[in-house]
Write a structure and sequence with these properties.
Layout lengths: L5 H49 L13 H10 L6 H6 L4 H12 L15 H5 L19
């Protein structure tokens, strides 16, 4: 409901009671609800008039299709006659990037299951070596 939480709704009711008073509030609610009902009826009748003027070839016309995202999702992505899912999945370069990273670091790439961590993650999970007082920590090329 318009992204209003229960606490905000209670605050709005309390504010309405304070501004309009408890005696005028029921009349105000009736007026607002009747106005919203009239606006909805006007909108529905305008939609029906437009559909009737367009003719029988547009009998399945939906006004939501005027939104470009909805139109593309409904007419292009649902049918997928062009094979767009395969094209979109073809741009996933994460495995190729993992192979390049392994080659740069001199690691051998092993086939991994989807639940196993990536090759670079193992280095991050290792415990850090304790550095003695006055000694410089080891240089980490990945961190710079």
């Amino acid at each position: 409901m318009l992204d209003i939480g229960p606490l905000e709704l209670v605050a709005l009711v309390v504010l309405a009671v304070l501004i309009f008073g408890p005696d005028k509030l029921p009349k105000l609610i009736q007026d607002v609800s009747s106005t919203l009902r009239k606006i909805r009826q006007f909108s529905d009748s305008a939609k029906e008039d437009i559909r009737s003027e367009l003719g029988p070839e547009f009998k399945d016309f939906e006004f939501e299709d005027l939104n470009p995202k909805t139109f593309v999702r409904k007419h292009v992505l649902e049918k997928d006659e062009l094979g767009l899912k395969e094209i979109r999945n073809g741009f996933d370069f994460s495995s190729e990037m993992a192979d390049v990273t392994d080659a740069v670091h001199g690691r051998t790439s092993e086939p991994q299951s989807s639940a196993a961590p990536s090759a670079g993650t193992g280095d991050l999970l290792k415990k850090r070596e304790k550095v003695q007082d006055g000694e410089r920590p080891p240089f980490d090329a990945d961190a710079t």
